[in-house]
Design a protein that fits this description.
Helix content: 55-70%
Number of domains: 1
Number of helices: 7
Structural class: mainly alpha
Largest sheet: 2 strands, antiparallel
Distance between the termini: 70 Å
Number of strands: 2
Strand content: 5-15%
Length: 168
């Protein structure tokens, strides 16, 4: 009896940091769109897939700044600004206070770049972000009446801010 040789290769490769960076870059690639301001086109790279890490950073920034809102009318604009901030390569990462962020978002609106950027995102990714936000909102509601949990969250936020200050 002739034994059939297995033709499929079951190779095992070592997973290295370099390989992980490559795999991450492949999975979370960006696409370039062009927005027109006056007669000039400007390239902007946008995320094709929203990583969980970026969604967490988005939510953390939203929750951290949420208590600083003077008007809930600004909240929709702020969430759109955060979407652009966290999922594009527009140079606004260092703008962290709400007033400056909302002023910059007003500039985005006036220059007509908000709609083209938001329309370029994959609808599934926008729905994924919305779902993620809904889950967080539900969790926040669950913890709202738990003073011990609120205290722990505030302590974690203070630690994160301290770590961020040390890194910078």
């Amino acid at each position: 009896m002739i034994k059939k040789q297995n033709t499929s290769k079951n190779t095992s490769k070592k997973l290295t940091a370099t390989k992980l960076f490559d795999l991450h870059s492949d999975q979370f690639s960006k696409k370039t769109i062009k927005v027109k301001i006056k007669d000039t086109f400007y390239p902007i790279k946008i995320d094709q897939i929203f990583s969980e890490t970026k969604m967490k950073n988005y939510i953390m920034e939203l929750l951290t700044n949420y208590k600083n809102f003077e008007s809930f009318l600004s909240l929709p604009d702020y969430t759109l600004f955060l979407t652009i901030k966290h999922f594009t390569d527009l140079d606004c990462q260092d703008i962290n206070d709400i007033d400056s962020q909302l002023k910059l978002f007003s500039i985005f609106i006036d220059l007509g770049i908000v709609e083209p950027i938001l329309n370029a995102f994959d609808e599934k990714e926008m729905l994924k972000l919305k779902s993620y936000m809904t889950t967080v909102e539900k969790n926040v509601e669950d913890f709202k009446n738990n003073p011990e949990m609120i205290k722990q969250i505030e302590e974690l936020a203070k630690k994160q801010n301290t770590l961020t200050d040390l890194i910078q």
